[in-house]
Fold:
Amino acid sequence: MVQVRSAYDCDVLVIGGGIVGLSTAYAITRAAPGTRVTVLEKEQGPARHQTGRNSGVIHSGIYYRPGSLKARYAVRGAAEMVKFCAEYDIAHAVTGKLIVATEREELPRLHSLVQRGRENGIPVRELGPAQLTEHEPEVRGLAAIHVSTTGVCDFVAVARRLAEASGAEIRYGADVVRADRRPGLGVAVRTADGTIVRGRVLVNCAGLHCDEMARLTGDDPGMRIVPFRGEYYTLARPELVRGLVYPVPDPAFPFLGVHLTRGIDGGVHIGPNAVPALAREGYGWGVVRPRELGATLSWPGSWRIARRHWRYGAGELRRSVSKAAFTEAVRRLLPAVTPEDLVPSAAGVRAQAVLRDGTLVDDFLIKEGPRTVHVLNAPSPAATASLPIGREVARRALAALAGA
Structure:
């Protein structure tokens, strides 16, 4: 028995050093002290992609279907994230946010959000135009709701602290290129530099590459990651915005629309839009990876999305290539803004799972195979919900370990 154990480099091998992967490692060592965990991250540090390229918002959970993983984990995760940041002295603030209706046809959807928030146990207050102006003098709208539990934090700092506190072995610069899963033995992976790492159970938290990682292990994920780039601007006159201001979202899409976010650094970020990325890590139009683009275009779901939502997509593309069009969208909420106020900022890419029939997966998606656990859809609000997500993935990994 001792000889078999020594053949493994670790008990649980986690692929991906974003906030979900690191939260999983943290949860495993908390739940089962002594469990050997190794995290492989292809970049030279943690949280280089979705975790480190979002707007830094601790989401309340108001948008998500009652009973869904997103609703349950976001509500619980927001409270836990604030507590975690306070405990480890990580920059954060609970600011609250406004969701603003600027057109009459948005009012029914705004009222539906009030009901959804209450069903999810979130304190929500309805505001008229005068009360809206008290909160945000430069913002205009017909009505708004105030959600008090929303905040902002430094998610990269959270990821670093999770890595340190987990006690796991974190290997950066470890790009997994092959995997050999043998249900009776375990999983071995090879990194780009030829290193072999063996674990009894593998956890796939590879984010933008999670579907590819699942296939490397021999599991069929049943979905494809279709990357959407979100482009941001920084507001040159941050005094125009006091806090967080969101439009009423379109329920047909998992994107929240262009919003105004005063970050933990005091700057105000505006965005994102949502346009197809030409690579998994396509942070600009000039980043094109033919193999990855070909994989997206060969997936039937990609074409079905395009046919179903081409009008919406055309508007997003227009705002991507035209600063004037982007400014026009922002002016719906913030009339005083000018094109000169918008300074281009770093973009992010959302790892959106899409089914073969073109359905955009709207909840967190976690699947299991023999000796594997795959996190297959964890875009926003996954950073907010990372602590409860990590516990759920850890529970499944430890169950697989116990049965190994």
Q: What stands out?
A: The radius of gyration is 21 Å. Confidence is low (pLDDT under 50) at residues 1-5. The first helix runs from residue 2 to 6. DSSP finds twelve helices and 22 strands in the chain.
